[in-house]
Write a structure and sequence with these properties.
By secondary structure, this protein is an alpha/beta fold. It has 10 helices and 13 strands. The protein has a 5-stranded mixed β-sheet, with helices on both faces. The protein has a 4-stranded mixed β-sheet with strand order 8-13-12-11, with helices on both faces. Helix 3 packs across helix 4 and helix 7 packs parallel to helix 8. The structure holds oxa(dethia)-CoA (UT7).
């Protein structure tokens, strides 16, 4: 498998830490020192479907393929306005009538991009598809209680996309899951029925920050070390470690464990916050468009999220 095109799209509305401190008991100092985040983008008059379509079109254009060459769309999304139809079918509609590929959504939480890569690789390897569009589109800011400072300051909305095709650039990948319902969860209400009134049990995002932090560092280290060992790759030979953009302190901790220089860990969480599964493809798109990733570069991707799920990939650009 190889990535042949990238794209991304962010909401227009930029919200700084100071703006949050205007209505929450928080401060720029607390948010930036504890997380590294300075601003984030939030959906306001725009919507997630349009963002996903913009990112998808940019990825297809940069791949140099036609819309009718896309023969599968995989969308990574935790939740959005539409429970059904799937966001991937909404993206397909936005690409125009020439696109008639099958569509699927997957919920791999913040590791969704790595889960999508894993599935796409299997489809390509079994000739189920030739060009697959992966779009990660997320609006986690809409899961939060905006009266509550613990979670709302952490997230941002966004979409990142790639087009993948056959090739041997994906050297190894790894996905894991361990059912842990209580460390991070968000319940959406369904309709009550005469027989089940439990839908009143509505909750905004709940997170045990310390637990997630600890598990994030441990699981990412495990995925990265496993992939490096499996492929007999020295950590020094990796050009960039592209990690889920959740918290600068998590990234720093992983970097210190790996004993690698800061330049190898590009970040954008300062500007976008945690955009869930969109964070790595947005980062890749920015690096590619900025000329930072070159052909032949060795890249390590690693993400973790609610579930608890993790994913990693070692790829040659
Ligand atoms: O994609 C996965 C998503 N989740 C994550 O990646 C989260 C991982 N965890 C983290 O990033 C960190 O645990 C947090 C950033 C969520 C919290 O940082 P922390 O250093 O673990 O802070 P803490 O939870 O220990 O809180 C320290 C203090 C508490 O006050 P007291 O009890 O010491 O008086 C909190 O109430 O900071 C308080 N606090 C805040 N203060 C100002 C919590 N949130 C805020 C806030 N502004 N936004």
């Amino acid at each position: 498998m190889k990535i042949i095109g990238t794209g991304s799209a962010l909401p227009e509305k930029e919200v700084s830490n100071d703006m949050l401190a205007g209505f929450l008991d928080t401060s720029d100092e607390w948010i930036s020192t504890r997380t590294g985040i300075h601003t984030r983008r939030l959906l306001s008059s725009d919507n997630l479907g349009d963002l996903a379509i913009t990112a998808a079109k940019a990825a297809i254009e940069s791949a140099g393929v036609n819309v009718n060459d896309i023969d599968y769309i995989i969308c990574s999304n935790v939740a959005n306005n539409y429970v059904t139809p799937s966001l991937s079918t909404i993206i397909q509609g936005g690409l125009g009538d020439e696109c008639s590929s099958p569509c699927m959504d997957l919920n791999g939480a913040c590791a969704g991009f790595l889960y999508a890569i894993d599935i796409a690789e299997a489809f390509l390897a079994t000739d189920r598809a030739k060009n697959i569009l992966i779009v990660c589109a997320e609006e986690p800011t809409k899961f939060c209680d905006w009266h509550e400072r613990e979670t709302s300051v952490l997230f941002g909305d966004g979409a990142g996309a790639v087009v993948v095709t056959g090739g041997d650039n994906l050297l190894a990948r790894r996905v894991t899951a361990k059912s842990l319902k209580d460390v991070i969860y968000y319940k959406r209400p369904l309709e009550n029925t005469p027989y089940d009134r439990s839908s009143q049990d509505q909750k905004t995002l709940v997170m045990k920050g310390h637990d997630v932090f600890r598990m994030a560092v441990r699981s990412s280290m495990n995925d990265i070390n496993t992939l490096l060992e499996e492929q007999h790759v020295n950590p020094d030979d990796v050009k960039y470690y592209l990690l889920h953009q959740a918290n600068m302190r998590i990234i720093d901790s992983i970097r210190e464990h790996l004993n690698q220089p800061v330049e190898k860990f590009p970040t954008n969480l300062q500007r976008y916050g945690n955009t869930s599964s969109a964070s790595i493809p947005i980062l890749i798109d920015e690096l590619v468009r900025g000329g930072k990733i070159q052909e032949g570069d060795l890249l390590m991707l690693s993400a973790f999220g609610a579930g608890f799920v993790t994913g990693g990939a070692l790829m040659r650009w």
